[in-house]
Structure formats: structure tokens, C-alpha cells
Amino acid sequence: MHDMIAYAWLIPAFPFISFLLIGLGVRLYSQKLAGIIATLSIGASFACALTLAITYFGLAPDAEGLRPTLVPWSFIWVDYMEGLRVNLGILVDPISVLLMVVVTTVSLLVHLYSMGYMKGETGYGRYFTWLNLFTFSMLGLVVAPNIIQTYVFWELVGASSFLLIGYYYERGAAVAASKKAFIVTRFADLGFLLGIILLGYVGYPLYQGSGVEGQLFDYTYLTNPQNITALVGTGFLGISLLLIYMGAAGKSAMFPLHIWLPDAMEGPTPVSALIHAATMVVAGVYLVARLFPLFSTTPDVLEFVSYVGLFTCAFAAIIACTQDDIKRVLAFSTLSQLGYMMFALGLASMDQPLGYVASMFHLFTHAFFKALLFLGAGAIIHAVHSNDIWHMGGLKKLMPVTHLTFLIAVLAISGIWPFAGFFSKDEILLAALQGGKNIHFIGGLLVAGLTAFYMARIYFLSFWGSPRSKGSSHAHEAPLIMLIPLCVLAVLSLVGGWVPFSDYVTIGLTEHQGGHGSSIVPILGSLVAILGLGFSWFVYGRGESARSDAIAAKWGMVFGWIKNKFYMDEVYQFITHQMIFRFVATPIAWFDRNVVDGAVNLTGWLTRRASSIFTLIQTGQAQTYGVWFVVGTGVTLIMLWFTKG
Amino acid sequence: MNLYHFIIFSLFLFSVGIYGVLTRRSAVGILIAIELMLNAGAINLAVFNRYLAPDKVDGQIMALFVMAVAAAEVLVGMAILIMLFRRKKSVDIGQLDILRH
Q1: ipTM score for this prediction
Q2: How far apart are CA A70 and CA A214, in angstroms?
Q3: Which one of B14, B15, B21 would you mutate to disrupt binding with A, by most A Cβ within 10 Å of its Cβ?
């Protein structure tokens, strides 16, 4: 059993092999078999990840309560020169093990669910190929022992996300959404890359100076306190971390780089559950957590991270209250929850790691209940054939299992005891209170209330009242293979919060931060959540739009602003089309067409003119050539004569 | 009569050959001029043999080789010219400019 740590490389290997196998071969012969192989490979990965977690967390923590950071398997991938080597390998530490378990669990369930959900689609095999590629890339990202590997897999994850959002490539909206997601995150990754380069530029000379044999320029080096002190001394750490954070903000859809995530809902619903809710979007949070020892030395950057997180958290929650597309509501709620994670991370420090623990805890619980919400929404969409919550209603009786699991997820995300969200959200709020950040505490509390309100809104509108469309009156329960993942996730959402999380994942000082010291937080948190639920019931409980329309009419202008997502898309449209395209891209295009292409054409024209002159000496007459030959020989002889001495 | 007379003679012969190759219109004339150049070379071989290494025969053997090669070359050259004449009804080298294209 102990060997599992040494064999941790199997975890990303399974999906990779399966990706190659089904992508290049099986898919062409049997779509059904492709799905089965894909699911089995993730199952094998999941089993390995679980064994790894049991083995790893079974290791006794050291005197300070920390578990070791291991690199059980790695090889030199690129060997630039003496000392400058990039390795590809597996890093095992608490957060990577945590993420491996989360990714493989959700991925396995989503694969299972997809076998039902995607049944009969033409691109069934292609879908599973990309899903496997995604899982492999995400696992590779999670276990990366150095920032280069992180970056490579970071891009792979982005590419597979692009492929899956654009899965329905006949639909214009899906193509546009996939491009948007790719371009926005790619733009953010520009910052990430610059950050890496800057970090390498200032960090590498220090690394060379340290001269430890066999030590690579990787995370174990970067997070070593001594080396951090040296890095801080260069004065460039802050700016490079800010740039790296830009990449993280793009992937985790922090304001103002959030615009791609709601549109990413054009992909198949299980993809939204896996990539755009539970795993890929937390990559940014994970990156910040991975580099947290560095971030903790730059309080300004952390504070920025925290405020951006808080703003995104509130901003997205407000928008979520007004959206009618069930998946968009969930997308905005994802944004909001990512905001929670980021602002909790921003509140932490090496002395007060509660925010860090809370952030990782929320990542863990959120993955389950948000995947559950999406898969539940998928089941509803599957039955009703519409994304619009006003076309649903009365599904409580028609889809009892989906109803129950969805209810559990709604309660979990709203933070009702004893569901998972209650514990993790509590810890975040507690971290804010302990850190003395009243703005964060109050903001977090209000957003908790809003979360309860909008989640209950979609719950009431889809399950209560009476059917509001033909689709919803003829809805039927999803097939068993889709219900199993729902039930498993419901159980995880129920028990996920009871995990003694801070015993497993922590950083810096590990003396118990009094996780349950303050009773005011859970009481306030529950109160706000119940208020939110109650108000939602008051407005939407009857499954009618009368009360909500009244409120919308009363707030007219403000409501319109929120409903249109504060016109962020339009702002981007204006900036890109009216400003960047017109004043930057158009002149550059002119320059390219006229000056650059002109120069190319000029050289071509000159060459042709010159050659048309020189063709005149090509007479085709053997005797003319003979004359040249004799003259040439004569000249050569004369030259030899004069140079022989 | 010494070595220099013979060398000057063969130089003259060779120059006549070059002049012929570069100026004759008729392909047959060019072939004949080439023969002159080859013979200039053969004379040189024989003469150097005679004056520089009189007790050996290497140069004379080479001269015989040159004659044999010249005969073979004329054979091939004439065959080409005959084929050319069949197609073009002329052996005027000035009309043969397909190398230009």
C-alpha cells in the first residue's frame, strides 16, 4: 500500500493512455466502447487517487503538523544547459492529493453521467476523447512539480476546455463561446507567462548562487523559506506574482476576466459540471495556493487578490439573481463561489493559515455540490428540452430523485447545516472575522444570503408550482446511469463538510486556529441563508412570476442593468471593436498590407526585373557559352598567374 | 628544332581549334576543329615524352589513347549530327537554341 506514492504517476497516465487509445482507434469502430473505456480509465485513476490519499494522509505528520512534500517520480524533460533543467513529474503534497481526489471523483461521475446524457449524439466518441484529454491535463496540472509543467498543462486544460465548449460546432453560439473562452483565458495567460519569465529572470541567478546539488528550480525550491527571503530581496517578486495572478484570475474567471465563463455554458451540461464548475476553474485558486508561500510575502498582492475575489463574489451573486437560463445562474454562482475561495486565500498568511485552509475546504465541498447542481440541471434540461427556468415548474413529482438531490445541493450551497457548504463557508467567514477584515466579513455574509436566494429561486421555479410548458408537463425521470452520479454527489455534499479538513490540509503554523471558537459566525451565516431562502420562497414559492415581476418593475432601471450583467459584454465589445480594432488593429492591418506586404512584393518585383535583364545572356547558343567558357578559363589562368607568388 | 618549336606549334594548332569551335556555323566544322584541339594535346604528350623522358613511352601511349578517344567521339558526334539533320534538314549550329528555353 505504501508503494502507491511511488506509483502516483499512474493517476494521470490512465486517462492519457485511454485518450490516445479511443481518440486514435476505438472511436472509429465503436462509439459505445469508447465511452466505456474512457469511463473505466477514469475509474482506475480514481481508485489510484483514493489509495494515494489514504496512504498519504496516513503518513504521520511531522512535529509541526505538516505532511511532507514529495516528488516520487520525475524525469528531466528539457535539458537546456548545466543547471537549467525542466523536469516533468509528480508532486505529492496535501493540496495536490486533495485536488487529485476531487478531479478523479467528479470526472468519474461525470463520465458515468455522460454515458446516459450524451446517448445517441453523433460525436459520442469524440466527446469522451476530449473528456479524457481534459482529465489528463487537469491531473498533470495538479501534480506539476514546477511552474513550467504547470504552464504546459494549464494551456492543455484551456485547449480541451475550448474543444468541449465548442462540442456542438454546428451551432454558431457554441463556436463563438469556445473562441471567447480561449481568447480571454489566453490573454490572461500572457500575464502568467510574463510572470514566469520575470520570476525565472530574477530567481534564476539566486538559484545558481545557492548551488545545492540535485536541486531543480521547482516548487520545492521556490517555497523554501530561505529562498523566498532571497527572492523578496530582488524587489521583483510582487510584480511577477501579480502577473501570475492575472493568469490565475483568467482561469478562475475573476472580474473583469469573468466574461467567458457564462458563455462557456454552450457546451454540453456534463462538461459544464466537470470543467466550468468543479475542476478547471479552480485551477487559478490552486495556482495561488500552490505559490502561497511566495504570495504570503507580498501582502499587497494578497490584498488585491482578496478584494478582487470579494468583488467578483458579490458582483456575480447579484447578476445570478436575475438570469433566466438555469445554466447561467449556475455559472454566475460558480463565479461567486470562486470569489469566495480567492478572497479567503487573500486573507490568509503563513501565521494565520485559516483562510488558506478555508479556501481549500470550500474548493473541496464546492466541487461536489456544484457538480451536483449542474448534473441535476442537466437532467432537468434533458427532460424539459429547455434551459429557461420559466419553461420548467412542477418537476417535483415527475422527477423525484433529481428533485431530492438538487434540493440537497441547493441547501449545501446555501450553507444550511449539516450540508457541506455550511462548514466551508463558515470557515471562510471566520477567517475574515479573525483577520479583522470587516468588509470581507459583511460582504461574505451578504453574498451568502444572496446565494441562498438565487439558488432557491431556480429550485422553486423548476420544481414547485405547476408545469409552465409542454416540455415540463411531459418530463420524465432521467435514466439510472444519470441518477447514480447524482446520488453519489448528493451523499458527498451531505458528508463532505464533516471531514476534519484542517487536519489534512494546512500550511505554515498549524496550531488549531479555533475553527469552532466563535459561535457568532455559524449563527449569523445560517440566519442569512434562511432569510435568503425565505425571501425566495415568498417571491417564487408559488411558481409564478407575479411577485418577481412586481419587484422587477419597481426597480426597473437597476434591474435592467443587472439583468444585462452590468453590460460587461457590451463594454468589452466597445473596447475591442470601437477602440482596439479601430485604433490599433486597423492601422496595424494597414501597415501589414501596405508596408510589410509591400516590401515583400518589392523584393519580388526587383528580382523579376533583374532576372529579365540577365536572361538576355542566355542565348541558347552553344558557341556563346563556349566563348564564356574560354574567357572564364583565361581569366582564371591570369588570376592564378598573378597570385601564384 | 627543340621543345619550344613543338610547343608553339601545338599552341597554334590548339588556338586554331578553339577559333574553329567558337566561329564555325556548321556542326561538322566544329567537330573537325575539336579534332585539331585533340591533336594539339596528343602532340604535346608525344613531344614531352621525347624531350623530358626519352627512355619511357608513357606519353606516346597516351597519344594513342587520345586518337582512340577522338575516333570514338567523332563517331558519337556524327551520329548525333545525322539524327539532327534528319529532323531539321540542317546542321547549322545557329539554329540550335533550345537550351535557351
Answers
A1: 0.84
A2: 15
A3: B21
Main-chain phi, psi angles of A76, to 5 degrees: -75, 125
Residue A498 pLDDT level (bands cut at 50, 70, 90): confident
Distance of CA A3 to CAs A54, A71, A95, A633, Å? 12, 13, 20, 80
Nearest to A626 among B21, B98, B100 (CB): B21
Measured between beta carbons, the chain A residues lying within 8 angstroms of B94 are 621
Other CB atoms within a 10 A radius of the CB of residue A257 amount to 23
Set of cell numbers at residue A269: 451540461
Whether residues A620 and B22 touch (CB distance < 8 A) is answered with no
Average pLDDT value for chain A: 86
Task: Answer for the pair B66, B38: CB distance below 8 angstroms, yes or no.
Answer: yes
Please check whether residue B76 touches A, CB under 8 A: no
Contacts of A616 in chain B (CB under 8 A): none
User: Crossing angle, helix A354-384 and helix A480-495, to 10 degrees?
Assistant: 160
CA dihedral B35, B41, B44, B50 (to 10 degrees): -80
Residue A105 has pLDDT above 70, yes or no: yes
- Alpha-carbon distance A88 to A90, whole Å? 7
d(CA A64, CA A67): 9
Q: Is B96 helix (H, G, I), strand (E, B) or coil?
A: coil
- Residue A119: its H or E element: none
What are chain B's domains? 3-100 (1.10.287.3510)
Using CA atoms, how far apart are residues B34 and A578, in angstroms rounded to an integer?
79
Q: Which of A620, A626, A630 is closest, CB to CB, to B97?
A: A620
Q: What confidence score (pLDDT) does residue B77 get?
A: 92
| B56/chain A closest Cα distance in angstroms | 30
Nearest to A472 by CA among A409, A411, A402, A552: A402
Compute the distance between CA of residue A383 and CA of residue A11 in angstroms, rounded to an integer: 35
Q: How many CB pairs under 8 A join A and B?
A: 28
Chain A residue numbers with beta carbons less than 8 Å from the beta carbon of B98 are 620
A627·B94 Cβ contact <8 A: no
- Dump the DSSP string for A310-378: HHHHHHHHHHHTT--BHHHHHHHHHHHHHHHHHHHHHH--SS-THHHHHHHHHHHHHHHHHHHHHHHHH
pTM score: 0.78
Burial of A109 (0-12, 13-18, 19+ CB in 10 A): buried
**Rounded to an integer, what distance in angstroms lies between the CA atom of residue A24 and that of residue A126?**
10
Q: With bands split at pLDDT 50, 70 and 90, how would you rate the model's confidence at A1?
A: very low
Q: What is the pLDDT of residue A141?
A: 92
Residues 2-61 of B with CB under 8 A from A: 18, 21-23
Cα-based distances in Å from A342 to A282, A390, A444 = 10, 33, 12
| pLDDT digit string, tens, across residues B60-96 | 999 999 999 999 999 999 999 999 889 888 888 888 7
Q: Which residue of A has its CA nearest to B92?
A: A621
* CA A462 vs CA A319, A387, A407, A453, B66: distances in Å: 19, 10, 11, 14, 106
DSSP A182-195: HHHHHHHHHHHHHH
Radius of gyration of chain B (CA): 17
Beta bridge partners, A79, equal A85
Q: How many CB atoms within 10 Å of residue A521?
A: 23
